[in-house]
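Hi R.,

As promised, here are both runs. First protein below:
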Amino acid sequence: MCFDCSGCKNSCCISKKPALNKADVLRIAKVVDDVFKYLIFRDDIQGRVVKGNKHSGVLTLRNQEDGSCIFYKNDKCTIYNNRPTSCMLYPYNPIFTEKIGGYDLKVETSSCKELDKGHSFKYMSNALRWRKERLEYDKIVAEYNKRENRDFRDFLVMLCT
């Protein structure tokens, strides 16, 4: 895995709304019965926008009534080994800027009180995997957004095939 989080009760599982990609959805689908009931399209975060006929949004996990992640129970992630890649990378945020012949990588760090405790982190291989997953997802989103009639349910089916 990436950053080894021990469930510090920090705000990341409570306030973050990670954008999902195909690999994230398929990974979560392995450990829940109906993955679609855990997903939602939000228009209040940054990410790859999926256009519906009447509105658009970014695919994320649903939140509980208190605003925390749907999988956050008893101060732990119930799908920890299958969590979204951006959750695995947190508190680090890789920003890839595509350019001719490659890309530039900038890494931003979010505040996390666990950073100073020496947790294991294998950043580059996981950041590169995340980039590959995002590029694959971008292609799916672009193809879907070209369709004349778009329904989010169709996108989810397309994503999972």
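And here is the second one, sequence first, then its structure tokens:
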Amino acid sequence: MRGISMRNANRNKSHIRAASGQATVEFGIASVVFFMIVFGTVDFGRSIFLNAQLHSAVRDAAREGNVGSANGYRVNKTTLKTRIANAWNSESRTTKPRPGLTNVTVTVECIGRGGCISPLTLTASSSVVLE
């Protein structure tokens, strides 16, 4: 058996270093694309969640205004605006903030001086801000 000469051993080491450098560059390129897809998917899911939260909040506030005016009392515009930002728990009779709806812009259009009576129009919009 012949031993490996020093010249061949150095050539093999430089080949290994070049291959590991190539793998590092390939990983850097592929990981950027991978992480863009992953974080883009997470951000898209978050925007859909916030849209569903806002839709549900407006529906709850509109129902409260409609039921209140149908029962003969006037609903305060401020109450309707706070119902969009805060969820009402009827069992514990408390409110808690809705996630992601702290910066909601709400307009309430209705007939009545002291409060709202039918017809009632609620419009809400939210700018998605990373918190």
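A quick note on the second one: The beta strands are 86-89, 94-97, 104-111, 117-126. Let me know what you think.

Best,
J.
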